[in-house]
């Protein structure tokens, strides 16, 4: 590999991050002092509406992460903190970052700017991959992670955090997908440059899990390409109809989790809320 190739990748990644930040109207930078860390905790508390003792992170951990050279950043707009992201170095040593928690306003492209800042930061330190977990039932997160960023789920993690006492999770079991973001992958490069496009449903795909009258309806898993559906709005459904939310949790766990366990791969997420799953 030429000596300047890493620098060139980092420069391109920085340029894409800066363009995304301008579009979002934010300034993104690393955070260093206690007052900024307190703003992060306050921001996260407002997003997750956590019960006492269930905050996604605390000031002490933010201090430790930042002091030890890990990733703690914030997006600022109109004089205030509009988003923040926290990550730490992960295995394999010297190659990976795990993005622990990112929270921001849902609009304006702030989340995209934060992730592109995180990617540029990682590339500048010689890292090749970023991973994170997300709830497979939340359509907007699946679309953002798979379509907007070009990440791919690699593992289904059952009840990863246990029951979570916040307004978003509402005591639901915390199943997660482990998303992996290979920073130099051409798909990721295209997504970060803004070239991501809606995913078309492959011809001949078999519906393994669908939504019928708001509830999960299981289909067939006999096919090379399968579609695994998700609820329209799980965050609204949880407090309104916890029984149906639980049915969705277990259906997606059984179907999507089972397919991944058998070696299938998620290759995309459709505009209609289906994971596209390809058997090997």
Explained architecture:
The protein has 280 residues and is α+β, with helices and mostly antiparallel strands. The protein contains eight helices and twelve strands. The strands form two sheets. It has a seven-stranded mixed sheet with strand order 1-2-3-4-5-7-6, sandwiched between helices. Strands 9-8-10-12-11 form a five-stranded mixed sheet. A hairpin with a 4-residue loop joins β11 (265-269) and β12 (274-278). α1 (5-24) runs antiparallel to α4 and α7 (234-240) packs across α8. The protein is globular and about 55 Å long. The chain starts with a helix and ends with a strand.
What's the gist of this structure?
The protein is of the alpha+beta class and 280 residues long. It contains 8 helices and 12 strands.
Structure keywords:
280 residues; seven-stranded mixed β-sheet; five-stranded mixed β-sheet; globular
Topology:
Blueprint: H1 5-24, E1 27-30, H2 34-48, H3 59-67, E2 71-77, E3 80-90, E4 96-104, H4 110-124, E5 129-134, H5 139-148, E6 152-157, E7 176-182, H6 186-192, E8 206-212, E9 215-218, E10 225-229, H7 234-240, H8 242-261, E11 265-269, E12 274-278
Parallel strand pairs: 4-5, 8-10
Antiparallel strand pairs: 1-2, 2-3, 3-4, 5-7, 6-7, 8-9, 10-12, 11-12
